[in-house]
Amino acid sequence: MASVNLDSLSAQQLTQVKKQLDEELEHLTSSFAQLHAAQSKFRECMRCIQGKNKSPALREATENSSILVPLTNSLYVRGTLSSASHVVVDIGTGFYVEKEVKSAADFYENKVGEVGASIKDLEAIVQAKTSNVRVVEEVLRQKMVSGPQQTAQT
Q1: Rounded to the nearest 10 degrees, what angle do helices 11-54 and 101-153 cross at?
Q2: C-alpha closest to that of 142 among 10, 4, 38, 3
Q3: Distance between CA atoms of residues 109 and 126, nearest Å
Q4: How far apart are CA 88 and CA 124, in angstroms?
Q5: What number of other Cβ atoms are within 10 A of residue 131's Cβ?
Q6: Which member of 43, 46, 91, 136 lies 3.0 to 4.6 Å from 108 by CB, making a disulfide possible if both were Cys?
Q7: More confident residue, 7 or 42
Q8: Best CA proximity match to 112, nearest among 27, 33, 47
Q9: Is the torsion defined by CA of 121, 123, 129, 131 positive or negative?
Q10: Residue 5 region by backbone torsions, left for phi larger than 0, else alpha for psi between -120 and 50, else beta
């Protein structure tokens, strides 16, 4: 990406640059929030799977046991356990795979790590864009202050 000397730009051009940077920053911030939500979802899935091993009722559950299946955080439906050693895992884009409990826990643990790395990378990009916006704002402010003085001298 080529760098531009901000001092050589007019106030109108600086305003356009700032507008573009603000839009990019808004998009990146939205992506940041979505990544945090995805990471929370994966952590919740991991917690549920790990809770299965800790819960005496689930540990002792056998095939054909009656259970409550969570559809949302507050909505459950009655179901029948078809396998006590396997779970269905959402691997993304509407695809589900049956995995052993240990494999599912590893899957979600890896997902939490991958999303965490993406969040960290995105955080650095957001900070850089925020810094760029501040620099553009400062140059624009200086142009606005010096603008009336230049017209008074001519």
Answers
A1: 160
A2: 10
A3: 25
A4: 35
A5: 10
A6: 46
A7: 42
A8: 47
A9: negative
A10: beta
Q: Kindly report the length of the chain.
A: 154
Residue 60 has a pLDDT of 65
Pairwise CA distance, residues 32 & 29, whole Å: 5
Cα–Cα nearest to 17, from 29, 27, 9: 9
Beta-carbon contacts of 42 under 8 Å, excluding residues fewer than 6 positions away, are 108, 111, 112, 115
Under DSSP, the state recorded for 82 is S
CA distance 55 to 72: 20
pLDDT at 152 (0 to 100): 44
Of 105, 106, 111, nearest to 53 by C-alpha is 105
| Residue recorded with tokens 């979600």 | 108
Structure tokens at 17: 């640059």
Q: How far is CA 107 from the centre of its chain?
A: 18
